[in-house]
Amino acid sequence: MCTYLTEKFALDGSGKGADGYFALTEAMVYVDHPQHAPYEHTVNIDFLNPSQGPSSRVAVELTEESALALIDAIRSALAAAPPGLTSAAPAKTAA
Hints:
Helices cover about 20% and strands about 40% of the residues. The protein is an alpha+beta fold and about 100 residues long. It has a four-stranded antiparallel β-sheet. The N and C termini lie far apart (about 55 Å). It comes from Streptomyces tremellae. This is DUF6295 family protein.
């Protein structure tokens, strides 16, 4: 069953498309029928930059199990890195 609920949010990053890397400015996450994955429904994640047109999109279709494993892997990788290492703003250092 499709939920028709879409989580849309701004982000900062880069994605790689057919023409190379481009800036990402937003993402959407939703549960729906996939376009390519061989499942009835998937967790779909679209990373995009609407100002650069429809080709500036990276789409991902994951099973529920794979989506949850991805969440765990991201949390684990961030927990293992020094705080602020991948933040947009430089980490403050003690004087």
